[in-house]
């Protein structure tokens, strides 16, 4: 199983990246916080791009093998806890982790059902199941983490079509995504892709 990869980013979107590791290109599915965290210097158009290290979960099915990459061990651990819950697959778990992992930990600790229910694809029953399975494990999650931390940074990419596409791929309806992007532009007319995506997600969380 692949547990960690370090290489040069050849291409990146808020959903996945192509990582060159020793001349081999690995397609890795990523979360929004991980997308945020990848430094601008990894822009494929930038000469001498710095290597990026990702904590990898290798998801194996009978008909496919997929890699999911995370900037921090905490994010990876939460992802693996989520997909262990009945009815939650990798795609939905990645969507649940659209907010910083610390927000999910807070929601679990406080039993915040409303926070979990706002995630596309997570109904009340699924949110209740997540709380039931993980609420009492929050303290254990903290003790399982290795002592490491990495700084976050932003990446500027594309235009409004890319923003809307990223939100739709996370499960939001196109009309809601477009409205959120318009609102984000009003809040931050000169905002970077990173900032506009963050503001759009914040607006959608209120819907």
Can you offer a commentary on this structure?
With 207 residues, this protein is an alpha+beta fold. It has three domains: 4-70, Nucleic acid-binding proteins (OB fold (Dihydrolipoamide Acetyltransferase, E2P), Beta Barrel); 73-144, 5' to 3' exonuclease, C-terminal subdomain (DNA polymerase, domain 1, Orthogonal Bundle); 160-204, Helicase, Ruva Protein, domain 3 (Orthogonal Bundle), CATH 1.10.8. It is 45% helix and 18% strand. The chain has ten helices and five strands. The protein has helices spanning 32-37, 73-83, 90-96, 101-110, 113-117, 124-134, 138-144, 160-169, 174-187, 193-204; strands spanning 4-12, 16-21, 24-30, 52-60, 65-70. It has a five-stranded mixed beta barrel with strand order 1-2-3-5-4. A hairpin with a 2-residue loop joins strand 2 (16-21) and strand 3 (24-30). Helix 2 crosses helix 3 (90-96), helix 8 (160-169) crosses helix 9 (174-187) and helix 9 packs across helix 10 (193-204). The longest helix is centred in the last third of the chain and has 14 residues, at 174-187. It is globular. The model is unreliable at 145-158 (pLDDT under 50).
